[in-house]
Design goal:
single chain; alpha+beta; six-stranded mixed beta sheet; 4 helices; 8 strands; globular
Length: about 150
């Protein structure tokens, strides 16, 4: 464990709490103004906090109520003022169309230590697909219990 691991875990937990409660202002405090964000939805790349904010708001607006994010398999690597984290999220909630949704999301974040603390400078999320039918791979009940 590096000296920064506990503060990075707390930082990522704070970000997840902001996502789950759909607190856009609190969430955006985790991002550097020059953020480059790759998502699984068009237009696939978002640059700068205004574009990333709109993308998160689009995500929030797709759910009735809170979004549940269960984090799994967090890996951290740090070197000086740089850090990398990768993890899996089980993203569940009720969509605005009434559908109860549950999907695995893979995520990698790159962070830099600034005067105000850690900030995310790059993020990449993806959704695993079934290579046989090229559709999103949805978790089974067994996967959700993991």
């Amino acid at each position: 464990m590096t000296t920064h691991d506990s503060e990075l875990k707390a930082f990522l937990e704070s970000r997840a709490e902001a996502q789950q409660s759909k607190d856009i202002d609190r969430l955006m405090r985790h991002y550097d103004s020059g953020i480059v964000y790759y998502d699984a939805v068009p237009p696939l790349q978002f640059s700068g906090t205004e574009q990333v904010r709109r993308n998160f708001q689009r995500w929030f607006d797709g759910y009735e109520g809170p979004i549940s994010l269960q984090n799994h398999d967090l890996t951290l690597a740090t070197s000086g003022e740089l850090a990398f984290a990768n993890m899996l999220h089980l993203d569940t909630g009720t969509r605005t169309n009434g559908l109860q949704s549950s999907i695995w999301v893979r995520e990698t974040v790159c962070l830099r230590l600034s005067d105000v603390g850690w900030l995310i400078t790059h993020e990449h999320v993806s959704i695993p697909i079934n290579p046989e039918n090229l559709q999103a791979w949805l978790p089974s009940e067994k996967d959700q219990a993991a």
